[in-house]
Amino acid sequence: MSATRRLQKELGDLKNCGVKAYENVECEETNLLKWTVLLLPDKEPYNKGAFKVGITFPVDYPFKPPKVAFETKIYHPNVDEEGKFCLPIVTAENWKPATKTEQVMMALLSLINEPEPNHPIRADVAEEFQKDHKKFMKTAEEHTRKHSEKRPE
Amino acid sequence: MDDEDMSCTSGDDYGGYGDEDYYNEADVDAADDVAVTPTHSEEADYECLNVNQVERVFTDGVNSLVSRVPVNEKFARILLEANQWDVEKIVKHFRQDRTEFMRRSHIDARPEPRRKLSATATSIAKGYCSVCAMDGYSELPHLSCGHCFCEHCWKSHIESRLSEGVAARIECMESNCEVYAPAEFVLKIIKSSNALKLKYERFLLRDMVNSHPHLKFCVGNDCQVIIRSTEIKPKRVTCLSCHTSFCVKCGADYHAPTSCDTIRQWMTKCADDSETANYISAHTKDCPQCHSCIEKAGGCNHIQCTRCRHHFCWMCFGDWKSHGSEYYECSRYKENPSVAAEANHVKARRALEKYLHYFERFENHSKSLKMEEELRDKIRKKIDDKVNEHNGTWIDWQYLHKSVSLLTKCRYTLQYTYPFAYYLSAGPRKNLFEYQQAQLEKEVEELAWAVERADGTARGALEAHMHRAEHKRQTLLHDFFF
């Protein structure tokens, strides 16, 4: 499998990059194609918790994009109830083999920190975000407290 | 690609009927023969080309561009493909905003930050390919942007893009780099694999033909012919190789007086009772720009068409660019669900009744056309019998054959008036159309009656019927098609 070397390198780079926005980068013991990353957004209302993201690499990685989805529930205009979201850099049409998982994580983080209500998956949440921002912040914060993972010390 | 398949053989489709071609020619003349001279032709001006001839069309385009602007042939092809082979438009952009135009056309890379450039330089020095994360490569092929990757990764990338159907627009592997790989580069990388090479050439030809406004693949099964025509109206072409007739604009069955968009809508609607069609209508929509059928696979409503790259909103079909806060207007509709649902139910019933009215007539004429095929065979046999019995010569009985041909032609047009009428909004134009349609219908049925009883009808009377039917057909086409 040609993906092995590339994945090992990326896993190493990601673990040692020293960026505070994500931690606990892990891959399944028997399967290098399945990773989890703990995402730590730094903007309210998501900065009170941590969110687990699952990454599944296809066998023909890096020529096909990885599948990325939240495993932790998150109340966000751009993430649906199943944890799926629309991130252009990992779509089949836009995917580039030289794009690194680190870039994908940064793109996801910026989507979480800066929601795009004009490009929503959950129209109801997006409407609340735009029309009643206070209520949105309150709901999202409560949701984060209730469902998200603990931030590592 | 095989050149030998392209020769135009006159196939003997009817098993033993050697004079088929003669009959077909008689069809074309039938209208003139009954003294209705059409002011416009329903046949498009066209020529049938084989792959080599099409390659010459492309080469001519490339040469004319290269002689006008300072660009080499491999980039000229990319420019022409991306700009519908419009040499004037490209020349104009070269004068106005050359640098930006070359970047926008995926030929030149956009400038990169110095930090990234020096990182690239370091990895090249080590022979490092960042896609497979291996170093020590002596050769790292790259496009005009200078992003280097090993040959093996390039090959896998090209293979992967081909599996998605991308050929003319294969981009560099670097993130955010939009430079396209010229054919010359791709072919060099995949030279060792004949299967890949064939696939690439086939897809590239498809992309080039599709991007050229005057070229269209013949829609016949396994037919390699490419039709070249500058026709703007949806007229008819007939492939000289496989004899398939179709509309020069959309490739569907010839459909005058109906327009391409209308017939497309109609055919989708007609296929509605099949499960696939139900799925298609429930889960797919057509791109508002190029009308490709798009299936939405994710939740996101911002759709980019993979074919024409148009960005649009899945809900309201508006251009995505003009789509700021108006988004919520598309979801607001369900404000009073019970009233809306009831009204929809009534509306749906009425719509169904209207549709069935037109559909039944459309279908009925289609069935009649099939049955009249048998009539044509019968008359052919009748003529043979008469000639064998020395009752007149073959030429003497030609008018019988012509009468069936003309009947087919008129009924065919009549069939396609129904989708046209279905989508026509009420008003004087529709009234006029339906009046003319009714007249054509009457003449067609009278002609059919006369043809079926041709033995008992005098030649003069039959020819009078033919004349009237063709006259009504021409009038209708003249007023609503040409």
UniProtKB/TrEMBL annotation, chain A:
What sequence ranges are listed for the domain UBC core? 2-149
Annotated GO molecular function terms are: ubiquitin conjugating enzyme activity; ubiquitin protein ligase binding
**For this UniProt entry, which segments traverse the membrane?**
none
Q: Which UniProt keywords apply?
A: Transferase, Ubl conjugation pathway
Q: Which InterPro entries match?
A: Ub_conjugating_enzyme, UBC, UBQ-conjugating_enzyme/RWD
| Catalytic activity of the protein | S-ubiquitinyl-[E1 ubiquitin-activating enzyme]-L-cysteine + [E2 ubiquitin-conjugating enzyme]-L-cysteine = [E1 ubiquitin-activating enzyme]-L-cysteine + S-ubiquitinyl-[E2 ubiquitin-conjugating enzyme]-L-cysteine
Report the domain of life of the source organism: Eukaryota
EC numbers on record: 2.3.2.23
Q: Name one GO biological process term.
A: protein ubiquitination
SUPFAM superfamilies the UniProt entry points to: UBC-like
User: This chain belongs to which protein, by name?
Assistant: E2 ubiquitin-conjugating enzyme
Q: What is the species of this protein?
A: Caenorhabditis remanei (Caenorhabditis vulgaris)
From TrEMBL, chain B:
Q: Which UniProt keywords apply?
A: Metal-binding, Nucleus, Repeat, Transferase, Ubl conjugation pathway, Zinc, Zinc-finger
Region named Disordered: 1-22
Q: What is its main location?
A: nucleus
Intracellular or extracellular location(s) = Nucleus
Q: What SUPFAM superfamilies does UniProt report for this protein, alphabetically?
A: RING/U-box
Q: Which residues form the RING-type domain?
A: 125-334
- Please indicate if the UniProt record lists Transferase as a keyword: yes
* Alphabetical list of InterPro entries matching this protein: Ariadne, BRcat_RBR_TRIAD1, E3_UB_ligase_RBR, IBR_dom, Rcat_RBR_TRIAD1, TRIAD_supradom, Znf_RING/FYVE/PHD
Q: Which GO terms describe its biological process?
A: protein ubiquitination
Record's GO cellular component terms: nucleus
Q: Which PROSITE patterns match?
A: TRIAD
The GO terms this record gives for MF are: ubiquitin protein ligase activity; zinc ion binding
Q: What is its EC number?
A: 2.3.2.31
Query: Belongs to which family?
Result: Belongs to the RBR family. Ariadne subfamily.
Q: Which named protein is this?
A: RBR-type E3 ubiquitin transferase
Q: Which organism is it from?
A: Caenorhabditis remanei
